[in-house]
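Loading example: each entry is read as two labelled lines plus one structure line.
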Amino acid sequence: MNFVAAIGRLLISFFQAVGRIAMFTGLALFHSLRPPFYPRLILRQMIDIGYYSLPVVGLTAIFTGMVLALQSYSGFARFSAESAVATVVVISITRELGPVLAALMVAGRIGASMAAEIGTMRVTEQIDALTTLSTNPYKYLVMPRLLAGLAMMPVLVLVADIIGVFGGYIIGVNKLGFNPAAYLKSTFEYLEFKDVFSGLVKASVFGFIITLMGCYHGYHSQRGAQGVGTATINAVVSALILILVFNYMITELFFAR
Amino acid sequence: MSTNLQTPKIKVRGLKKAFGNKVVLDGLDIDVMPGESVVIIGGSGTGKSVLLKCILGIIHPDAGSIEIDGEEVTRMSSRERERVMRKFGMLFQGGALFDSLRVWENVSFGLVQAQGMDRVQAKDIAIRKLAAVGLGPEVGELLPAELSGGMQKRVALARAIATEPDIILFDEPTTGLDPIMSDVINDLIVDCVKQLGATTLSITHDLASARKIAHRIAMIYNGKIIWSGPVSKIDYTGNAYVDQFIHGRAEGPIKVEVGAISDPLPGSRR
């Protein structure tokens, strides 16, 4: 096969996908600005994303904080900088690990379930049925999910930040022999507003990405059980990749000198 | 019968739609007059569903015009389209009930979401509509997944008529039901339509159903209407295609394309 043609085909399908996603996003945003709004549905999605994701996100955060304290302690001990552990834990959690790991977990949970649910609705003609009942599927299905993702991810990440720092504190105080007050003091001493804020901005963007990918792939699901399965895989994988890419870009925006 | 002076409820002219290389609709014309019940028959994959979805605006045709009450709808904005959609009720082949909502919420969906009716009043109407299709009020509290196929079809019918639409479209109303339940659904359709005085357009390949609910039958083949006439004439058309179809013979002018795509993929629309 012609190698150049294969690359060309790949590029074309890539840009087609980008174009379709951009149009989907544009339509969803356009429809989200005009009534009717569905507060009941928005609330339900917020609870699903924010409340029901708490256990898995909390678990991720506490172990991440614990392992971070342990690793940075054994690393820093090589050049007698053990006192930096608390600062390293809080900065890594708030800037990077809190938002990224929470987003990865939520992408698996929420992105997959949205793609499967909307994909099934597509396959069983429920989305067509919405249109025939004078209800715009972008307003009814997509907008509440996007909004809930945008609003709830920062809340989740804030909780993850606190739990993660607490995980570090447990290990620092109980295992590594830090004085509790001193550990807390050095946790907050060098913490800047920007560290937490940048993490929350990331969280919001990630929440948007996860719900957008879930809705987009579900909305364009192909027929049958296999189609819905593929849509679910695509939703999760594309969300994971986009999260990592956007994580770099937002970090660059905030912290590159 | 209808006169030419009346404006047709649905007027389709030169409708074309292709998915990739596969031409599904190839210059299709059809009129449905007010109060008329037209049934389109035709084999699987002949573009029946695509025609309905074009009329509903779910699929955009490549060419041709669709007029609803004399209004051209193919070039309407989505907001105008929603206004026209309020005249429509649609019964989907698989029912397409919203499985996250209770039965009564499904039936009253159009009333609550599109007309802004309050839920208490809408529930009353939903229960009345359920009674009209022979289901008790206790069914209203169930989820669609808890119903049998025949009951789901009835609920879907109740949802289609709940907003008392002018025009009702039926997509294979009896597919997947046993002959007796099919007949029950056919009777319900005839009753409901008579009560509402609605105009209906149905597609089916079930001839017993077509004979029961149609005033006029049209046969679709290769993306065109090849015959149309009153239901009483269906057995004496002298049209070899129609004859082959209504007698269900494998031999005849209609060649079954083996390996043809039965329907476009839903993801490829627009």
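The first strand of chain B starts at residue 10 and ends at 19.
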